[in-house]
Amino acid sequence: MKTLIVTAHPDPESLTAGIAEQLRTALEPAEVEVADLAAEDFDPRFGAADRHSYRVGGEFSPDVLREHRRLDAADHLVLVFPVWWWSMPALLKGWVDRVFVNGWAFDVSAPDAEGGMRRNLGGLTIHLLLVAGDSASTYERHGYEQVLETQIGHGIVDYVGARRGATAWVHDSERDDDAGRRKAVEEAVAQVAAAVRGA
Ligand SMILES: Cc1cc2nc3c(=O)[nH]c(=O)nc-3n(C[C@H](O)[C@H](O)[C@H](O)COP(=O)(O)O)c2cc1C
Fold first, then answer.
1. Phi, psi for residue 164 in degrees, rounded to 5
2. What is the dihedral of CA 67, 39, 148, 112, to 10 degrees?
3. Residue with CA nearest ligand 1 atom 28
4. pLDDT tens string 81-131
5. How does strand 125-131 pair with strand 163-170?
6. Ligand 1 centre and the CA of 130: distance in Å?
7. For the chain, first and last CA: distance in Å?
């Protein structure tokens, strides 16, 4: 069983980067790879070549193909990211835009048995670990948590036919409370690790 952790943060010393490493340690000795999109200099811009691939459902760029091979080898995908403007960082969004594409993640021109769009990632369970500056009560009060669950859980995970795994949160990520943050990180990492192991 293999887990691919994908993270996107410009600072290798960030809380987000540290959480991705903590999760790697929690999952080992099972096979686990951390894809740090910033360190790898992944290009998130959906360009003309991506537009062409989208239209023909194939002929993917080499950097996109590389991500497909990584995901093909994984049973679990964990997205670890800071919440920026109630969403994922543009770098991670661009990775989704370019990698979760027609002809690989789904097929618009190859209907399933019921005549619906074919969703190809049934072998993958996708987990989310979100690092948020604001409190859980702020998310609750404004409906932001529901927005993210709908947008990512339903809009991406369900759309490609993957299984929904754990959604874990570290709230108040910048509050002056080291002990509280450490506890929140430990709980979030344990929640995702248990979901990966138990699935
Ligand atoms: C551009 C930007 C946008 C942000 N937007 C949000 C937001 O919408 N909601 C939130 O809870 N925190 C927001 N924050 C705070 C980040 O979530 C916080 O900086 C991060 O969780 C801290 O972890 P890090 O050290 O890994 O970056 C934002 C931060 C930045 C830099």
1. -85, 125
2. 0
3. 84
4. 999 999 999 999 999 999 999 999 999 888 888 878 899 999 999 999 999
5. parallel
6. 10
7. 10
- For ligand 1, atom 31, which residue shows the shortest CA distance? 84
**Which residue type, as a one-letter code, is found at position 64?**
V
Best residue among 84, 129, 144 to mutate for probing ligand 1, ranked by most atoms within 8 Å of CB: 84
Handedness of CA 66, 94, 181, 186 (dihedral sign): negative
Angle 172-87-149 from CA coordinates, rounded to 5°: 90
Enumerate domains of the chain plus CATH numbers. Answer: 2-198 (3.40.50.360)
Cα of 103 to ligand 1 centre, how many Å?
34
Give 114 Cα–ligand 1 centroid separation in angstroms: 42
Q: Say whether pTM exceeds 0.90.
A: yes
How does strand 125-131 pair with strand 76-82? parallel
Measured by CA distance, the residue closest to atom 22 of ligand 1 is: 173
